Amino acid sequence: MYNTKIxxxxxxFESGVSEAVTLIMNDELxxxxxxxxxxxGANAFSxxxxxxxxxxxxxxxxxxxxxxxxxxxxxxxxxxxxxxxKKVLEEYWPGPxxxxxxxxxxxxxxxxAGLDSVGLRMxxxxxxxEVIKRTGFPIAAPSANKSGSPSPTEADxxxxxxxxxLPLILDGGTCEYGVESTVCDLxxxxxxxxxxxxxxxxxxxxxxxxxxxxxxxxxxxxxEEIPSSxxxxxxxxxxxxxxxxxxxxxxxxxxSTNKMxxxxxxxxxxxxxxCFKEDTRFFKGRKTMxxxxxxxxxxxxxxxxxxxxSIDNDGYTRVYFEALPxxxxxxxxxxxxxxxxxxxxxxxx
Length: 349
Ligand code: TXA
Ligand code: MG
Hints:
Helix 1 (9-25) runs parallel beside helix 6 (126-135) and helix 10 (297-313) runs parallel beside helix 11 (329-340). The chain is of the alpha/beta class. The chain has helices at 9-25, 47-57, 72-78, 83-92, 109-112, 126-135, 155-162, 201-208, 250-266, 297-313, 329-340; strands spanning 5-8, 30-32, 39-43, 66-68, 97-102, 117-121, 139-140, 168-171, 182-185, 192-195, 212-213, 242-248, 271-276, 288-292, 318-322, 345-348. Helix content is 35%, strand content 20%. The strands form two sheets. An eleven-stranded mixed sheet has the order 1-8-2-3-7-4-6-5-9-10-11, with helices on both faces. Strands 14-13-15-12-16 form a five-stranded parallel sheet, sandwiched between helices. The chain has two domains: 5-217, DHBP synthase, CATH 3.90.870; 242-347, Threonylcarbamoyl-AMP synthase, C-terminal domain (Rossmann fold, 3-Layer(aba) Sandwich). Bound molecules: threonylcarbamoyladenylate and magnesium ion. The site of magnesium ion has 3 residues, from loops. Residues 34, 36-37, 39, 63-66, 96, 98, 100, 112, 115, 117-119, 121, 123, 141-143, 180-181, 183, 194-195, 229-231 line the site of threonylcarbamoyladenylate (TXA).
């Protein structure tokens, strides 16, 4: 067990970075803030360090890690990048975009879980970039949560899941976007989005002329299917409460939600309705959790994981969530909430 130290980057940027550098050089783990979610980082060139990530998270060995770089030049040492892919990286890096590319031999099979591709991302946050630059090592980092629980968007969430399992958490406040990066396979003729995120499918299509979206973004994998992105086969983001996503005409969604909520109360459950501020009026007298205002989906995304964590802390047993349109960031939110719900989608006419 470690006596986990937490350093606030706003007040102690320099000491935070230099302690992280020392730890990364010594094959230890460091939790870093990024613009998407917190990452649990280790030297991607050290199998020993990377092994510690899987152990601390309780992550299945067949789920590959994203490798974080500080530049396209560093990415080129790790993967084969043609001119077209390079243009994409120039457009979206630094930022919430992970490119799946054919890996070079220097990248260990432990990082890629035996795949011949590697997911690469250049994040925006200064601390992680600085640690990569000073160590010269790319940093392998999955989200810094226990496997299966919602990704951490605040240092507190990392503490809840991993306290004692790593020596250092860098606290950079609340993450800007709140959902993990867009994972896009650039080894295909047409770029294939494996996990939607802040760089939307529409943006990729505009930029590259075409895009495909993995059908598993919104549907469960069938047991015999081979996942294009191994992370998609695992149950994800699940609070202990049962989550229901309800889709249909607004009036019917409201009616069904209220009916189920009232039945829950009679059955001794503790239900809560996630909704936009302006929609609380439809659920009068019932407990709601405000997701954001003015139908702003970015706000829903930013606080989604935090809200999912808080319902467990507050002892809610059932959560109702109205399905969002799947355009833009709506797809990223639906991809996460539908997994949190164990694919419990209720269609109401
Ligand atoms: O925003 C993010 O991407 C955060 C921050 C820390 O950068 N990281 C993150 O990592 O979300 P993780 O491990 O929680 O999710 C990585 C996803 C998994 O679904 C994994 O299967 C997929 O990316 N992935 C990684 N490498 C891949 C590859 N070579 N081919 C296909 N999918 C890959
Ligand atoms: Mg994750």
